[in-house]
């Protein structure tokens, strides 16, 4: 093959790769411009089998009723919704899932006294 053609193909490949990288970075920056909300770290450890200490720096977040956890989750949700609102495939995915789940469903029959019952759902009922 002619060396000029090989060189041109190499330049075009590098240019395409660079362009893809720049588009990806630009999208990433525009969508995730804000930083994720920070979480406080602790020096907590969990001990397993009486000899393994495993760092658990976020153990305080395990309590869902804690005010600090509620605030953290609220900030995370705001940040996530801001990102997810810009993703174009979510409405399409939601519509497809709706199409897939919209069919009649019947529960397993069960007996109460001398009567036989079953649950029925016409499609997207709650």
Describe the structure.
The chain has 126 residues and is of the alpha+beta class. It folds into 3 domains: 33 residues; 51 residues, no CATH class; 35 residues, no CATH class. The strands form 3 sheets. It has a two-stranded antiparallel ribbon with strand order 1-2. The longest helix has 29 residues. The radius of gyration is 27 Å and the shape is flat. The model has no long low-confidence stretch (mean pLDDT 81).
Mind sketching the topology for me?
Elements: H1 3-31, E1 45-48, E2 52-55, H2 67-84, H3 89-101, E3 105-106, E4 110-112, E5 115-117, E6 120-121
Antiparallel strand pairs: 1-2, 3-6, 4-5
Index terms:
flat, two-stranded antiparallel ribbon, alpha+beta, 3 domains, two-stranded antiparallel sheet, 126 residues, 48% helix
Write down the overall mean pLDDT: 81
Specify the helix fraction band.
40-55%
> What about the largest sheet?
2 strands, antiparallel
* Widest sheet, order of strands: 1-2
Question: Please, what is the oligomeric state?
Answer: single chain
Kindly summarize this structure in a few lines.
By secondary structure, the chain is an alpha+beta fold.
């Amino acid at each position: 093959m002619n060396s000029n053609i090989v060189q041109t193909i190499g330049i075009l490949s590098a240019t395409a790769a660079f362009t893809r990288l720049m588009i990806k970075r630009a999208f990433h920056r525009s969508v995730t411009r804000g930083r994720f909300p920070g979480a406080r770290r602790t020096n907590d450890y969990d001990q397993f089998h009486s000899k393994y200490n495993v760092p658990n720096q976020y153990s305080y977040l395990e309590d869902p009723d804690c005010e600090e956890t509620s605030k953290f989750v609220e900030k995370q949700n705001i940040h996530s919704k801001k990102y997810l609102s810009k993703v174009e495939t979510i409405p399409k995915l939601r519509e497809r899932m709706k199409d897939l789940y919209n069919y009649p469903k019947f529960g397993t029959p069960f007996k109460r006294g001398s009567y036989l019952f079953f649950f029925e759902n016409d499609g997207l009922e709650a």
